[in-house]
Amino acid sequence: VIGGNAFLKCTALQQVSIPPSVTELGRQSFMGCSNLTNVQVAHEGALQVIGEYAFRTCTALKQVSIPPSVTRLGGGTFMGCSNLTEVTLLGKGYLSKGFLDRGLLSGEAALNNTRINHLFGPVLRAFRSCPLTSIKISISRELSQCMARLPEECRRSVEERIPGMHHLDLARDGNIFACFPVIRSPLGEMDVIDTNDQTAASLHRLLRLISFHELKESSILTELAMWKSRIDEAATPVPPEKRSEYRVSIPDPAKCLIMEYCGFTDFLEPPFEGD
């Protein structure tokens, strides 16, 4: 634990790296460090709680990243950070499960506001008096299993399209982020709102694109397996030049079952032989 007031008004401090073993930053631990520009927290560290006013009036801070381990920010944690415009969330659960499963067809909002409010408090009270404009959420963990199943060529194809999707960002290290704008009320209260579902629409498009490549690869593998089984079951060896005659198409009912099994039903429709 880094205790309360540990570095209070330490104006000489410009960078800080929180060790992986630290579980809590105490109240006002870095408050008033007006020249602090960079706070690094271990991605796989043990930090869970960032106390009240821990970074209050750290006016040189422009962006911060909240690691997956953090479960709570105290009131006014970044209050008065007059140059802080961007916050990045690196954990899971900030997007709603229903949306990840079915996209816009689920009828659910993309953002899990319950999780956001639990972390930051109502009306983003951890960021009072900050010019915060957006919150970036890493979605790489949610998509990691889907992306890992794709061949390298398909992954590159997906990644190449991300820069053209509104409110999505692809970092140099391959991480994918969804950006949600911060809206202010006339009273100055802040909230994270996906205006006109713009971010949700881009996420839905990305999920459809990944599903398309998954389905394409699944169909190819299934047809190859059926084709090979016909060759293997032949009474006499099939010469290479005649093997194309043994290729069989997948029956329409089987295509539907494959779609349902792979979870693509709500995103894509298979091409039927009669189309």
From TrEMBL:
Question: According to the UniProt entry, where is the signal peptide?
Answer: none
Q: Which InterPro entries match?
A: LRR_5, LRR_dom_sf, Surface_bspA-like
Q: What protein am I looking at?
A: Uncharacterized protein
